[in-house]
Amino acid sequence: MTGTRRRWLGKTAYVVTYAAVGAFCVSLVLAVASALSGAGASGVKFGQFVLGWFLFVYAALKLRPTAAWKRDPESEQATSARVEQATEPVEEDERSDEEKAAAAASVLNPFTSTDGRIGANRSGPDDFGEERGGAFARYVARIPPAALFSLQPDDRPGTGVTVGATALCLLAVSFLLEVAFGV
To answer: In this structure, are 9 and 56 located in the same domain?
Structure first.
């Protein structure tokens, strides 16, 4: 199996596992709260429906790309100063070709970080920092099928994807309770 396909399967397995475990945990908490309030299974179904939509909206907001003016931590003055500095002739340039390419890339694309990666300084759907240290994400990564395809924390899908899948799972279980079981 190729590395790209294995990574794709790992990400898919992680999202499916995250959604199933997340929906199960939320349903368990809703079942306890519903039992204590006397609402029964209809309380669980209603809670899943409401929380599913709230999580879906939250995931949609997390998946939105970061606005262009929020990506660049530098001001316009710093960007124009970089452009002026890069256009001035340098008499003896002892930088390596990689450093020169990075400097040119930072002038041409202000969203490029110093190491040349586009968008490295921004947060958004491809920022995995929120899951990097999360106990729930580490727990999910140890449960099969996610455990069958080990992923580095930086390779895991972002919060928007996992929460969105959990929201869809909650809405599907709520629909199943209503249609199949008549709750």
So the answer is: yes
